[in-house]
Amino acid sequence: MATAAIANPTSLSPPTALASQKPVASHFPSSFRPLSSTSSSSSSSSAAAYALHNLHRIAKPWLPIIPRKLDAPLVHLEAAAVTDAEAELAEGEAASDSAVATAPPPSKPKTGKAALPLKRDRTRSKRFLEIQKLRENKKEYDVPTAVSLLKQTSNTKFVESAEAHFRLNIDPKYNDQQLRATVNLPKGTGQTVKVAVLTQGERIDEAKNAGADIVGGEELILQIKDGFMDFDKLIASPDMMPKVASLGKLLGPRGLMPNPKAGTVTTDIPQAIQEFKKGKVEYRVDKTGIVHLPFGKINFSDEDLIVNLMAAVRSIEANKPSGAKGVYWKSAHICSSMGPSIRLNIREMLDYKPPAV
């Protein structure tokens, strides 16, 4: 009963509250000590003030006293603080639960081209920034000037390849707008092409005599299934295609699957071998309507590069898909393997006549 009375002094009469709570001088400021009992023992206001001082000392000593009306209900400060803390904790837990519930699921890490930084976030090397000043951005050049700039922008320690990139007004998702063909570069590619042949019977000897690097039948198919890919071109005879079909998942992503449109499925195997050795190049449009085509090496002469480039342009023009409508050529660029692109004038490129081969 005494403990409950102390916890709630307002339930006692002022004399009882005075009797149950004794002031502690060592923990209470002298300026807030109650008046002496001789001067205010008979005064109810002094007793109420004394009870208020003691209540404040029990809740939190040294806190300044806020005067309030005697008839206002007194609240236990410690209990109120605990209640507020519990309310804030409950609100925090509810907020965290809602944040967890609304948080998006973690995304999978990007791989391949998607993991590369965006173009605006990439940094160029000092070498690239220097050679980039040799040509004007977005300016269209004629073929001889562009080839001359192409050779000037190549300053690496190895011999770079010369590449052509043509954006066409076609959509390969339609069957009548697909483009896949080959072109014989008159001056070659400047690369050593390793040719493998899949055939059987008498054609094995023909392929070996024609200069094939690798020749085989079913045993070569088994080697490819085991991971053997040491060749640049794979030529197959028509009678071997049912057996080659099982290699589609391995050869398709690498661009090595034999195909009649690419000239790698033929009955005249010796001729196909000679063409690929001399510089026959396969090209096809990608899903964005762009043809990427190498047409030589930087150490070629200007005339040789122009001849090869125009041979590629004529081949793409001759193999125009039947479903292509309107303007066929949208843009054309050439560049070295490690250099900036040089834009070509489309009209001048189509009308240009290369020197005699």
Automatic annotation (TrEMBL):
Under InterPro entries, the record lists: Ribosom_uL1_bac-type, Ribosomal_uL1-like, Ribosomal_uL1/biogenesis, Ribosomal_uL1_3-a/b-sand, Ribosomal_uL1_CS
For this protein, what is any one GO molecular function term? rRNA binding
Q: Does the keyword rRNA-binding apply?
A: yes
- Gene3D superfamilies named in the record: 3.30.190.20, 3.40.50.790
Instruction: Name the source's superkingdom.
Output: Eukaryota
Please give the start and end residues of each transmembrane region.
none
Q: Where is this region: Disordered?
A: 1-40, 88-116
Gene Ontology cellular-component terms for this entry are: large ribosomal subunit
GO BP terms: namely: translation
Tell me the keywords, alphabetical order: Ribonucleoprotein, Ribosomal protein, RNA-binding, rRNA-binding
Note whether Ribonucleoprotein occurs among the keywords: yes
Q: Where is the composition biased (Low complexity)?
A: 30-40
What HAMAP family would the database entry show? Ribosomal_uL1_B
The family line of this record is: Belongs to the universal ribosomal protein uL1 family.
According to UniProt, the name of this protein is Ribosomal protein
The organism encoding this protein is Musa troglodytarum
